[in-house]
Amino acid sequence: MAEEKKTQPTFEENLTALQAIVTKLEQGDVPLETALTQFQQGVTLSKQLQDTLDNAEKTLTKMMNDNGQEVDFEAAPDSETNHE
Questions:
Q1: Where does the sequence pass through the membrane (predicted)?
Q2: Which of 3, 13, 19, 77 is 20 to 30 Å from the Cα of 41, by its Cα?
Q3: Which structural domain range is residue 25 located in?
Q4: Element (H, E) at 13
Q5: Domain assignment present for 2
Q6: Does residue 80 belong to any structural domain of this protein?
Q7: pLDDT tens digits, residue range 47-62?
Q8: Left, alpha or beta for 3 (phi > 0: left; psi -120 to 50: alpha)?
Q9: Could you give the count of Cα atoms lying within 13 Å of 79 in the half-sphere of its Cβ?
Q10: pTM exceeding the 0.85 threshold for the entire prediction
Q11: Which helix (H) or strand (E) holds 21?
Q12: Is residue 6 in a domain?
């Protein structure tokens, strides 16, 4: 029997799911038990989305130096001042 791989939802899919939960909860016609479950799912999605954004920010603020080492963008020496 072939085992299917579960893929992680994309950032956009998680964002869409969170927006759907918020919209449904804002309508106010959800039973309390369902609202609590959806709220908990929303909190989980929100944390996942924030983690994804934090990781993206860390990646985008790094660069490779001439030695092939990863360094923080802000800590990288200014290439214009190194020309003699």
A1: none
A2: 3
A3: 11-75
A4: helix 11-27
A5: no
A6: no
A7: 999 999 999 888 888 7
A8: beta
A9: 5
A10: no
A11: helix 11-27
A12: no
